[in-house]
């Protein structure tokens, strides 16, 4: 077991409020920061941005104000149409650690993050979205110290949802509060979900790729495992789950910190950036966005082991997505892609007859819709 409380003062929940105010100011805590090297390895912070000129200062200041300074800040801008890159260029003048890479076409978030991982120079990597922020000045120092001390592949800390400028909940509704030890393989692959009689299948780890310090070597191998079919694809939904499930197949060790360190903005910046224009796949944008859920299901079918537990996971993902999106009303294209997932599950020896009948009923309703469209 790793005890970081013995070495560091534990971050308290209340501290996120005062630090959020600091993130809203366009200045350093230390007006003359010293970017000296430390005994800890280099950490690359990858920021994916798209039309975030209005909020990128919060993200950048939360990184610059970290107590650890041995950080590479790598920003991958996905062909913004506002002045995001110009705003970042102003920050580069005061901080030599900031590197900006700009896509010439809009590529989507999973491709943006994958490009950042391949370009990173750090021993460890952490991903943050351009409209989010780290919630305490010591969180990267604490988590990186633990990652190095335990030689961990994944070190995760807690995230907080903010809406209407106030805390509403912890991002992961089922934090692993009972975990005090490092999780190793093969247990780690099945810790992504747990099956219980009362709740069925539920996630016990946050599906988000952010708020996790990950070894670069593990991340690179995970990208190879996931494959270019997904990492180079234009995926706008469920991209976090695809990446994290891929990492879980490669990583050998995981530790969950009971510290709050990430501020996830649920609505503060929504609806204020320009609509996509003059971009790759503009005419098919709605179709691309809608298909993210089925790309996730295909990924799970393609990449996870062929056993009862993981086929049950795909089934429950499908039912959850159907409940959330009401697929027979929502899907109006790429029907063959939808049916491929259904048919794979129907043929699985690991699902019950009741589960298969449920899938067939959904498929039948979608078939009727496709017939009416034609």
Largest beta-sheet details: 10 strands, mixed
Q: Class by helix and strand content?
A: alpha/beta
* Number of separate domains: 2
Tell me, what is the CATH class of the largest domain? Alpha Beta
Share of β-strand residues: 15-25%
Uncertain stretches of 5 or more adjacent residues: 1-8, 173-178, 269-286
Q: Report the CATH superfamily of the largest domain.
A: Spore Coat Polysaccharide Biosynthesis Protein SpsA, Chain A
Judging by the overall fold, what is the CATH architecture of the largest domain?
Alpha-Beta Complex
Rg for CA atoms: 21 Å
Average pLDDT, all residues: 78
Q: Provide the succession of SSEs.
A: HEHEHEHEEHEEEHEEEHHHEHHHHHH
Q: What is the approximate shape?
A: globular
What's the β-strand tally?
A: 12
CATH topology of the largest domain: Spore Coat Polysaccharide Biosynthesis Protein SpsA, Chain A
């Amino acid at each position: 077991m790793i005890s970081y409380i013995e070495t560091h003062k534990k971050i308290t929940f209340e501290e996120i409020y005062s630090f959020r105010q600091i993130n809203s100011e366009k200045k350093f805590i230390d007006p003359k920061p010293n970017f000296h090297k430390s005994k800890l390895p280099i950490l690359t912070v990858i920021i994916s941005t798209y039309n975030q000129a209005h909020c990128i200062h919060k993200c950048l200041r939360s990184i610059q104000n970290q107590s650890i300074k041995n950080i590479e800040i790598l920003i991958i801008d996905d062909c913004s149409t506002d002045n995001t890159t110009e705003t970042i260029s102003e920050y580069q003048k005061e901080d030599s650690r900031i590197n900006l890479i700009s896509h010439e076409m809009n590529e989507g978030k999973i491709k943006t993050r994958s490009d950042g991982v391949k370009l990173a120079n750090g021993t460890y990597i952490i991903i943050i979205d351009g409209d989010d922020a780290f919630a305490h000045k010591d969180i990267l120092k604490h988590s990186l110290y633990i990652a190095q001390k335990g030689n961990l592949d994944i070190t995760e800390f807690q995230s907080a949802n903010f809406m209407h400028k106030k805390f509403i909940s912890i991002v992961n509704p089922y934090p692993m509060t009972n975990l005090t030890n490092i999780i190793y393989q093969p247990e780690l692959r099945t810790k992504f979900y747990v099956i219980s009689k009362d709740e069925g299948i539920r996630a016990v780890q946050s599906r988000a790729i952010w708020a996790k310090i990950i070894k670069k070597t593990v991340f690179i191998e995970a990208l190879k495992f996931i494959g270019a079919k997904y990492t180079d694809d234009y995926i706008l939904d469920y991209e976090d789950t695809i990446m994290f499930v891929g990492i879980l197949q490669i990583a050998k060790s995981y530790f969950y910190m009971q510290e709050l360190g990430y501020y996830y903005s649920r609505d503060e910046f929504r609806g204020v950036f320009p609509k996509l224009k003059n971009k790759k796949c503009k005419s098919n944008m709605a179709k691309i966005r809608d298909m993210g859920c089925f790309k996730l299901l295909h990924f799970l079918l393609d990449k996870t082991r062929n056993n009862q537990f993981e086929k049950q996971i795909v089934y429950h993902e499908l039912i959850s997505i159907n409940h959330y999106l009401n697929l027979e009303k929502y899907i109006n294209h790429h029907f063959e892609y939808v049916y491929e997932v259904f048919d794979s599950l129907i043929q699985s020896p690991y699902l019950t007859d009741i589960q298969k009948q449920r899938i067939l009923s959904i498929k039948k309703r979608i078939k009727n819709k496709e017939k009416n469209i034609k």
